[in-house]
Amino acid sequence: MPTLGIGELAIILIIILLLFGASRITGVASALGGSIKAFRKAVRDDDEVPGNKAETNESTDKKAETKA
User: At CA 39, angle to CA 28 and CA 32, rounded to 5?
Assistant: First the structure.
């Protein structure tokens, strides 16, 4: 099975740039980056332990009582 070398990848990149243009490619890359960032944030939010949020709420309540 043949592998792609640096020369072949450069030719493919040039063809893609000619077909789509640099501005469209940067827009797609930006959208992809934003999607990946949102996905990672959602995964982190799902992995949080429910007990941590309760502790945060208790400390917030204590701060509110102290101010009052």
Answer: 5
Residue matched to tokens 């020369």: 7
In 3D space, the residue among 46, 50, 53, 49 whose CA is nearest the CA of residue 61 turns out to be 53
Number of domains in the chain: 1
In angstroms, rounded to a whole number, what is the distance separating the alpha carbons of residues 63 and 49?
Answer: 22
The pair of structure tokens assigned to 35 is 């999607």
Boundaries of domain holding 35: 21-67
Task: Give the pLDDT confidence of 6-63 residue by residue, as tens digits.
Answer: 999 999 999 988 998 888 888 989 999 999 999 999 998 887 756 555 455 555 555 5
Instruction: Compute the radius of gyration of the chain from its Cα atoms.
Output: 24
* Residue appearing with tokens 């992809």: 32
Say if 30 falls within a structural domain.
Answer: yes
